[in-house]
Structure prediction request, 237 residues.
Amino acid sequence: MKKTILIIALALVGTFAFAQKPTAGSRTAEVSITGAGLNSLDYALDEFRFRYFISDDMAVRCRFNLGSSSSTYNVEVAGATTYKAKREINEGFSLSFSPGIEKHFAGTDKLSPYAAAQIGIMMGGGGTDKTTDGTPNGATGITGAQGTNVATTNGSIMAFGLGLAIGADYYFTDAVYIGGEFGIPLYTMVSIGDGKEVTTVGGASTTVNNLGASASNLFAGSAGLIPTAGVRLGMKW
Prediction:
């Protein structure tokens, strides 16, 4: 038994000792891990990224992110008649992809530092916010108003960004690595389409059109477009 354990330990040490960085023709696939902190269990897989090394020190890459979420809130309102107000928020969908290129530097046999440039494109839409027997209050709250229903439809979103990044990958084995990256956003542009809000009281509806807007920023990022930092876990083959 001791010999078996020793053999396994030596094999693991040998695997770690001879881990190699990518060379021309290598491919990697990875996920970006986000969370509230080292002591938090609230972590999520934020995005997927693929790379292909066109030479020993150059790689092309593309990041993908697909998101959608919905939430339901209920409030019991006391008064002459007790009733429940309900709010349903659907964030719709978002899809982003960011092609780019990386320049890798010497580092060590296991550590591969790099600099990167990328563009980001994001599309989203379909979001709704519906409150029954109440009116919205803040980001998630509800104010009671029995017989009042409010339905909001958000406009579509288009975004574009340019950015740089610096990072490094550490290869534990030939196939597994962990990496960190710090993004430097250069420019982002976001355009939001028209939406509307329909309020219904006693069967009578009033519609308010929410006009779209656009904004552009220098040296400012956007979630899912040009991230500012991240930790990644990947595989190489």
